[in-house]
Design a protein that fits this description.
The chain is α/β, with parallel strands linked by helices. The protein contains 13 helices and eight strands. Helix 2 packs parallel to helix 13, helix 3 crosses helix 4 and helix 8 packs antiparallel against helix 9.
Length: 305
């Protein structure tokens, strides 16, 4: 048996008016880190990150975000605004008894993480972003960078009703599979991975709900506050959808942020270079734990004087 799989516990959490499927691993008393997937993925996108984080002493929570996989798929684009998605994350943390936690987000999961870290500075201890633009920068950046505008034309297509779902469902989700395999290094998404993705996409109403994240974009109210938590942006520069400049643009919203670039990695960097990504996450998140331990030691020392 795969030891990582043996550590996973799957549960359904009712929060913020929806039922969310969440996979957890690690000791219940350990500090929490939550991993947020993007489009068109599901919780299984983070399989290669779970065990290294557990081994480093973390409790890991990996949800199917609303609309995805085995989580509930409410109707209406208003159910997929950034604030609502952020409320889901807060609800998961509350259910897991974690008033403070770390966040790792990729793609849309990264945009939710950006938003939540700006909105809830008391809750988010550290923030790691993998190839996800800050919501407050995306449109302004695209307007001034024609190549990014061209790369983002699919967002306009996803605003249509019924047609995108029909095309994406055709031929056993051929277009969605191609979106993964053609934009990543050869062999990154083998049949074993793709089977899990197809199962998630085949869940009732999944395609409609996944696309509703995009359809809710006009309703978004991005937060422009400086993020107080330390931020590490890990960026695959060979991303075919997002320009490398988006990583630098996001730093203006960070009080303490930096970018680590993986020149050969694509948008799917956590699949292509898992060892490098895992090492960067463990190191960065561990710095926060070390700082907290040092502060606690200093506080105890002062109280003993």
């Amino acid at each position: 048996m795969n030891t990582m799989e043996a550590t996973l516990m799957h549960r359904t959490l009712d929060t913020n008016g929806v039922s969310l499927h969440v996979a957890t691993a690690g000791a219940e008393g350990a500090p929490l880190v939550m991993l947020l997937h993007g489009f068109p993925e599901y919780w299984g996108a983070w399989r290669q990150q779970v065990q290294p984080l557990v081994d480093a002493g973390w409790r890991v929570a990996v949800p199917d975000q609303r609309g995805y996989g085995e989580s509930q798929k409410p109707e209406g684009t208003g159910a997929y605004t950034l604030d609502t998605l952020a409320d889901d994350v807060m609800g998961i943390a509350q259910a897991l008894h974690a008033p403070r936690f770390c966040l790792v987000g990729h793609d849309w999961g990264g945009m939710v993480a950006w938003h939540l870290a700006a909105r809830e500075p008391a809750a988010v201890e550290r923030l790691a972003i993998l190839n996800a633009p800050h919501p407050a920068t995306f449109f302004s950046y695209a307007l001034t960078h024609p190549l990014q505008m061209l790369r983002s034309t699919y967002v306009g297509f996803f605003q249509l009703r019924w047609i995108p779902e029909t095309l994406l469902r055709a031929n056993n989700f051929a277009l969605l599979q191609a979106a993964l395999t053609h934009s990543s290094r050869p062999g990154t998404f083998g049949e074993d991975k793709l089977a899990g993705y197809r199962a998630a996409w085949a869940e009732p109403d999944a395609l409609r709900a996944m696309l509703d994240w995009y359809r809710a974009m006009p309703l978004a109210r991005p937060r422009a506050e400086k993020i107080e938590a330390p931020v590490r942006i890990v960026w695959g520069d060979a991303d075919s959808a997002l320009e490398p400049g988006l990583a630098q643009a996001a730093l203006r919203y960070c009080r303490n942020g930096h970018v680590v670039r993986l020149p050969r990695a694509s948008h799917w960097l956590h699949h292509e270079e898992p060892d490098e990504v895992n090492a960067l996450l463990v190191e960065f998140l561990g710095e926060g734990r070390a700082a907290a331990a040092a502060a606690a030691t200093e506080s105890r020392s002062k109280n003993a004087r």
